Protein 1
Amino acid sequence: MENFIVHNPTVLHFGRDVVNELGNTVAKYGKRVLLVYGKGSVKQTGLYQQILQQLTKVKAEVYEYSGIKPNPVVEDVDAAAALGRAKAIDVIVAVGGGSVIDSAKVISITIPAYQSAWDFFAQKAKPTSAIPVMAVLTLAATGTEMNPFAVLQNVRSKNKQGFGNPLMYPRHSFLDPSNTFSVPKNYTAYGVVDLIAHALESYFGKGDASLSDKIVFSVIKEAMEYGPDLLKNLRDYDLRARIMYAATLALNGITINGRVSGEWGVHSIGHVISVLYDTPHGATLSIAYPAWLKLVKDQIPERIQLLGKNLFNTDSIDKTIEKLEALFKKLESPVRLKEIKLTTNHHQQIIDQMIKSKVNGANIRLTEEDYPRLVSFMA
């Protein structure tokens, strides 16, 4: 078991009507607020009006940046940072799912940097300060509400990647499961897939941490037990709450304690598909994970066996992979490229982008010769 330090500075507000605590919380950090959100669904649900009431109550000056895309782009982050800089913003309020909150976290370090956000992702610069971020979550999936990571894509270079820094933790996150009622069935399913993938990325990381393993199994079992039921009852508060909490735990650090690192190769594969075809993130993961396991099963047989024993009551490596794939099917998320209308005509483009992006993991290494086999498993 490796040495580790636990420090998660995000204050999590979880439960019914916790957004009513937003105004007074924001007021502790300043009056000039940059409100960041997506394409307008928060207005249709009434959450936008509720947020404005909270900010008006504490006499905040509110400036808005809307239109964040489901696969967020650096151009929006740079534009929002320029607005925040011009208005001397004290605090950022992000209302949305992972795309919006990821964007807000990068905006927070870009405002004081006076340069493009992509410089951080390209390792040309390191953040030195950040504007405080308040996150109001509307989609249970990425765990971004309680971690220091974000993913962006650069449309011009066709590159999608992650970046993390301790300055990027949200100061406060507000999680009311009711605010996820309007998430449609397909995106609810993609969120469940995403939380499972995050737990697995920790599990397959380098290092021996048996208690962290058990936490991973518990998080995935929660998704297995309640995810399918949630797809049949999208407005069930208790089911929404269970999945929302599981998604937070899957990537707030607790599943990786005692390991050297996570194993993020599958996310890299998913990013290739997303950046090429604008595919929802969770859908790329349900396609990529079983294929990746088939490719690397001879490198990590014991880990796959232990996973199968604890999740599916099987010692068979192949049966474990089959059952994981069956779980994704039960969640009505795609498990083959053809299900998202990608044919053999697209395969070489995917392989070429994998080569360009140098798709790989931290511990379980792939070669360029592996990419065609990987794509064949995804087909």
Note: Residues 185-378 form a domain with the Dehydroquinate synthase-like, alpha domain fold (CATH 1.20.1090.10).
Protein 2
Amino acid sequence: MQGSTSNQGMFWSQARELFEQIVIWLDSHSICGLEHSQIEIKLLDNGCEVLRRLLQGYFDKRSQDEIEVQCAGTDSVNTTDKKKLSRKLTTLFGTVIANRIGYGGRKINTLFSLDREFYLPAQQYYLRLRQGYYPCD
């Protein structure tokens, strides 16, 4: 798949903006006197948000690059309608929105080719790689 070349940086601008704010905060005199645990907590919260924004940017980029295709379900029935739909996805970094093209028709379950590419489940779920503490969730 050919990636989009125009406005390529727009997908990452929100993550870059927050990263720069973090660096400015670390470089400021306002944190002098804070305990290291207070700095760590702030960095952890903002760091997870940077990662969430990067993941959202990735989903946004893939959505914009999505090419409309002919789509058939397991019953080999071709879909006739297509529309842009969104869904929430809860990740280790927080909730992101996946925008993608849905292919459906009358009495046909809607299919999403990007969901297949991303290995997204049929329904919203909470991602857990293993039992334990995840600082970003």
Note: The radius of gyration is 20 Å.
Protein 3
Amino acid sequence: MTTLLLGIGSWDPEPWRERFQSALPGWKVVLPGEIFDRRAVRYGAAWKQPEGTFADLPLLDAIFSLGAGVDHLFKDRRLPEGVPVVRVVDPDLTTRMSEYVVMHCLMALRRVRVYEGFQRDRQWIDLRDQPQASDIRVGLLGMGVLGQDAAMKLRTMGFKVAGWSRRPKAVDGVEMHHGSDGLDAVVATSDILVAMMPLTADTAGILEAKLFARMPKAEAIGGPVLINVGRGGLQNEPDILAALETGKLGAAVLDVFQTEPLPADSPLWTHPKVTVTPHNSAISSPPAIAAYVAQQIRTHMAGGDLVNIVDPAHGY
């Protein structure tokens, strides 16, 4: 019986098994540690899989990430060479991410955290110098499918949007930059900076003190705002806290962290200028993602090509 191996290390695997079993009738869906014929495994699907989950599978055709990122797969030192790794590009996940980014940009624009403080203190204070969205510049670091969709929706709300990518890329209606000089240009002109890039050797720790120092004062929204929906490895958390204390940052919205779950003793939990969310900006919905992966598998088994294959050299 043709088999799909689910390597899931940090979620409850059973809802995923149920959805894949429904999406691939007649297949066997197995988990690491169970007894199964390793020669029957044609495809794998993973999120933070145990080390070596996909080793010693002689007929493995592809491995699918169950989330937008793939860095968790490449951390596996026993990941088989030559087997394509496929990332998820699904409208459900993309829409969820854009909702999160637009929501927090609007909250920064309308000074929601400030008004929450006024409410707690029972203060009737009206900040009259309220900017419009068109007064605020949003920089998106990472202009893949998720970044482009967020850019389109931010523009619809009226924000000025610039984007940065590692290599040259054209996006309608967005001022695009690339490379190290382009990164400096976007950072220096972003009142709100949104990190959406993958975690690679080049981007690890990129959100640090020197970068924050290059951001504008953004006085209209109480200081520049950092939003990280990419990966926790992108950010230097002590530098974020220091920048908040000195005013280099006015606020930070963090959905990802260097250690997850975020340790209970982290000062990020209680900092008045930090919003913490539990890596749920774009949750992977089992029904939507299983359907996406199953369709790719059916197409591939019928002789078609896989789409959204990751370049191992670049990590995305």
Note: The two ends are 32 Å apart (CA to CA).
Protein 4
Amino acid sequence: MADEPTHSNPHDLACIEEVEIMTEYLEGALPTAEARRLERHLETCPGCTEYLGQMRSLAGSLGGLAEDAISTHMRDRLMAVFRDFRSSP
């Protein structure tokens, strides 16, 4: 069993924490201090840097997707899945 990543500085973010706040970071909704901590983490973590690039690419490809492009039923189902995912341990 692999150990979870740790950092010598307790103010640094572990990878799992970084992933949890990535959307807020990309939306510019992350408080400045948290964004700076995340950016310091990214400077030393190629895996998280790659993940950030993938998220940016995905967001860019979906940028032209209009809200009415999917049915109300499908949107409700997707929102339910996202809510369940965020609330799972």
Note: The CA atoms of residues 51 and 82 lie 19 Å apart.
